[in-house]
């Protein structure tokens, strides 16, 4: 099933919600007991699936406050938090707590413009979520960085409606990611919450694909329908290009159109000219609109081509976080990140190690920054477990179906630093690469891999290579091992698959100075960059790089005197103060080589 996707008018449920941490994970049991013990009046009955439903009066009842009722954990008396937010930043007493936190808020049915069917959409909740409306359980979701929605048409009631969400940012052995990562586990409702109301039969999602032949731009559009009437045709227009075409129905919920535009009449999307065009689709009463770029991305030999032209990927990697906000970035934070990216002279960014807010990709579309997007299959994934594989596919699907109309997205990455000596991994990852291509074969598939040191020098011998269009290589010569210019010993291989150095770098504390041999100084870090740049720019198989990392980020496993909870490999610190390596990289990206 396609996600119910945007862009559409929606009613924002961001703003103040009530929250209570549930440190001993007791409240749900209490609610279940309450349902059994109560004589019926206020308790909700078990739902159709036999799931014990939550009595929402017991968890959210303004009038209970101050009365004789049990109010120890009435959400109404909880903490007021301003969503979207990483709750650890909003409730300082619980800053490092990992576990269950309950959220609730009300809205009035008259507040929003209601159509036939209404959906409740969450941009992302880290890591698990369970959701109720008016005491009816809507469902649950696993995966901390992608959107999901529930239809609430039948649960909506007149007047006040109550949403209750149980979030859980515990770390799980069978999770994706699993229990250990080198980033902070910000819990909460980290992205926007919306009500989306649509006609009974409506467009769930659509996809625009471009390919180029001779002088023509070939465009294919697919759209997916939901509702009782999915047999009619729809239409699509791109007014600036004079395109107005029917969307032909296959009679089974899918519409499509194929048409050609003269290349002379189109400005193709590229980093130099990030041209976007309006697009509008209609089906019956329903309409959606967006801005899309037309472009083609492919590889030829060891090169990455955009619209047939070779592009060297001048990149930088980044996490999604901001001081005091955790993972809930606002528009200003997104803008600041693109300012740094542009100042460095980048045409490429790696959004590590999980899907970032969709605003990043929308802004990259406008700014002409090619993107590497990835799911958090990081280090040790329990690859052999079928449920984990299903969760893996789900996370890929939710990311790809969210961002497949973003012209900026060039690479889908399926994994980071997984063990290429693990046979199960070597069976599962090619399946994931195939799955990505089934969903979207207009981008390149990649993964961040390791290299090995052998008698023949540094070689890439990950069996996954033959399943990838571009091989990402994470290497830390000059920091964890060897010398920075050892990268020059990386052997070009006969296969010639383009390599992107997806990570390289070293730690430096901003303002800490010394000479080039002193670890943790800006000088030491800058010297690593000089060596790496030399190696990367002299190897023809290397098609770009995204050094680690744009800014210092919180990392619980980094606790030495220079780190104190931060990974210090940023070329700027967490406050945006530039280190020397920033200027070294900028100079390279501005050089005549490009
Ligand atoms: C890596 C990981 C990245 C770490 C980085 C480091 O290879 O992919 O998540 O933060 O190394 O700093 O060691």
Q: How many separate structural domains?
A: 3
Radius of gyration: 25 Å
Number of helices: 9
- What shape does the CA trace take? globular
Main sheet: strands, sense, barrel: 8 strands, parallel, barrel
Ligand inventory: (2S,3S,4S,5R)-3,4,5-trihydroxy-6-oxo-oxane-2-carboxylic acid
User: Which residues sit in consecutive blocks of at least 5 with pLDDT less than 50?
Assistant: 33-56, 60-67
CATH topology of the largest domain: TIM Barrel
Overall mean pLDDT? 91
**Order of strands, widest sheet:** 21-22-23-24-25-28-29-30
CATH superfamily of the largest domain: Glycosidases
Structural summary, described in words:
- By secondary structure, the chain is of the alpha+beta class.
- The chain folds into 3 domains: 11-198, Galactose-binding domain-like (Jelly Rolls); 202-295, Immunoglobulins (Immunoglobulin-like); 349-357 and 382-589, TIM Barrel (Alpha-Beta Barrel), CATH 3.20.20.
- Helix content is 18%, strand content 31%.
- It contains 9 helices and 32 strands.
- The strands form 7 sheets. An 8-stranded parallel beta barrel has the order 21-22-23-24-25-28-29-30, surrounded by 4 helices. A 7-stranded antiparallel beta sheet has the order 11-12-15-14-13-16-17, with no helix packed on it.
- Helix 8 (522-538) links the parallel strand 29 (499-503) and strand 30 (542-545).
- Helix 4 (331-343) packs across helix 5 and helix 6 (386-403) packs parallel to helix 7.
- The radius of gyration is 25 Å and the shape is globular.
- Mean pLDDT is 91; it is low at 33-56 and 60-67.
- The structure holds (2S,3S,4S,5R)-3,4,5-trihydroxy-6-oxo-oxane-2-carboxylic acid.
- Residues 202-295 form the Glycoside hydrolase family 2 immunoglobulin-like beta-sandwich domain.
- Belongs to the glycosyl hydrolase 2 family.
- It comes from Natrinema salsiterrestre.
- Residues 90-199 form the Glycosyl hydrolases family 2 sugar binding domain.
